[in-house]
Amino acid sequence: MSENATASPPTRALDSVSGISRKGLPQGTVGVFGAVIIGLSVCAPAYTLTASVGPAAQEVGWQMPAIFLAGFIPMLLVALGYRALNDRMPDSGTSFTWGTRAFGPWIGWMAGWGLIAATVLVLSNLAGVAVDFLFESLDILMNGGGEVANLASVVWINIIVCLAFMAMATFISYRGMTSTKIFQYITVFFQLGVMAWFILAMFFFAEPNPDSGVRNMPELSWFNPFAVDSFGAFSAGLAVSIFVYWGWDTVLTLGEETKASKGRMSTEGKASMILVAILLVMYVGTATATLVWAGTGDGEFGLGNTDIAENVFAAIAHPVMGPLAIFLTLGILLSAVSSINTTAISPARTLLAMSHYGALPASMKKIHSKYKSPYVALLWSSAVASVFYAVMRFLSEDVLWDTITALGMMVCFYYGITALSSTWYFRKTAAKLGWRFFTTAFLLPGLGGIFLLITFVTTTIDSFDPAFGSGSNIAGLGLVGILGVVVLLIGVVIMLAWSRKSPAFFRGEVLRVGDDSTDPRSLELFDDHIESHERR
Questions:
Q1: Are 116 and 359 in contact (CB under 8 A)?
Q2: Residue 195's Cα: distance from chain center in Å?
């Protein structure tokens, strides 16, 4: 082993009942503001919107703001469950750890795999968008006529530059949370400022879309999800809208690294609630502004044009912002690059937790002695994402669109399990701790979890249609469906193989199945609730 690296320190139990323990990550390094910044960086509004506005508009047309609103509702319900579980059991494994505690090691393992798979999908997508906007920015700076921008479509150039971006972002994450935060502050504020400018230009200042010559006036029907033509279109659009909110849960993987909170809600719990609210306003506002300016026609700049669906802002940046379009392209480029860096936080910490509890090889849990980062897990997740992107770029010309849709399926899968974990874990104590806790920790997460799992099943079935997503298919089966099912089956195979090699975790001997009634902290809260009730 390198002298700069060491395995995790000996396990120190936080909860002798559950088996949850610390993993050697540095404590007290991230506050509420820092966590919100990291969350915004992972969600990467500028990148997310340029990659999702086109596919969403292709599915639901004028109801794009409605589908972003609809996607927010299950995210909010799931966030409530995440917050409740995190307050009781802060752990970098999040979905994996909580799913195991609630439903047992097999379901918990697959929840962790769903998170890892989703992140690999989005890392590859982020790198692909970064490549597009790098060449787009260079083309503008060189006053080109599109020749430089078109280099992004050359497969071997695209893949080489993509791998370079992945390597750079991995190096930044490798150096730990401190360097990560500084980098994110700069990129987040820049992209938010540029996006605000872009939205205002589409609403008020830019010349109308040359396709029509007029701005579209917003209508109430744009915000009505029931106006979507079919349930199939609604499900596909919802999968895309869930993608845009995906990533806020990364702040909860920092539960072992955040500063202590003064109130009952944890630092990372507060950050997650603030983050979700910011995203709602930005996404619905941008969706509305884009419809106002571009409309849903199939002209050169219309959202119905399939040729620009993968990367709408690259197509409309110059007509909207003129010579200042360079700021938008740079904002999206920085958004994608910084998000590669912070998105790697989540799978690395999930892999760390799974290894720590014996659900994956022990080598995954190594912590760098100097930078305190889970560097082996980080390198593995980045390497797999890089290989995945290279393969997908050869299989599909519309790789960005297809990976977004497949990502939405994975997110529905593991978010649904995590939300139901909250309902099941708190089933014996929720009513005893008052109506507020019952609603936020038991009832609403349960509804959100059921909704997301239904969406996962229906979207998976629909995705085998060759016309689903970008239309890419293999032997007449939709590439998105094949991709989603193959990714899950790979997880099942790895899980079964590891259960034979290291069965202790799968026998429930490491992380034990339980519920809130066995958690000493729940008993303290119950006593506080009774005392408060008696005083009233």
A1: no
A2: 20
**Cβ contacts of 245 within 8 Å, gap of 6 or more:** 43, 71, 72, 75, 276, 279, 283
Q: Say how far apart CA 240 and CA 471 lie, in whole Å.
A: 15
State which amino acid sits at residue 461.
I
User: CA 453, CA 515: separation in Å to the nearest integer?
Assistant: 22
Packed helices 325-343 and 45-60: angle between N→C axes, nearest 10 degrees: 100
Contact 29, 178 (CB under 8 A): yes
Helices (H), 17-60: 32-43, 45-60
Domains and CATH numbers, the chain: 28-535 (1.20.1740.10)
Place 264 in a pLDDT band, splitting at 50, 70 and 90: low
pLDDT of residue 530: 39
408 near 239, Cβ under 8 Å?
yes
* Nearest alpha-carbon partner for 84 in 384, 440, 500, 458: 440
Q: Which residue has the higher pLDDT, 254 or 527?
A: 254
Backbone angles phi, psi at 473, to 5 degrees: -150, 160
Scanning the structure block, which residue is given the tokens 């393992």?
A: 109
The region that residue 261 occupies, defined by phi over 0 for left and psi between -120 and 50 for alpha, beta otherwise, is: beta
Res 4 pLDDT > 50? no
- CA quadruple 89, 92, 95, 101: dihedral positive or negative? negative
Q: In this model, does residue 102 exceed pLDDT 50?
A: yes
Read off the DSSP letter of residue 258.
B
- Find the helix or strand (DSSP H, E) in which 194 lies: helix 177-200
H/E stretch holding 367 reads strand 367-368
Alpha carbon 304 to its chain centroid, in Å, reads: 26
Q: Which 3-state string (H, E, C) describes 372-432?
A: CCCHHHHHHHHHHHHHHHHHHHHHCCCHHHHHHHHHHHHHHHHHHHHHHHHHHHCCCCCHH
Mean pLDDT along residues 441-463? 90
Containing 473, the helix (H) or strand (E) segment is strand 473-474
Q: Are 131 and 390 in contact (CB under 8 A)?
A: no
Q: Which of 133, 136, 160 is nearest to 147 (CA)?
A: 136
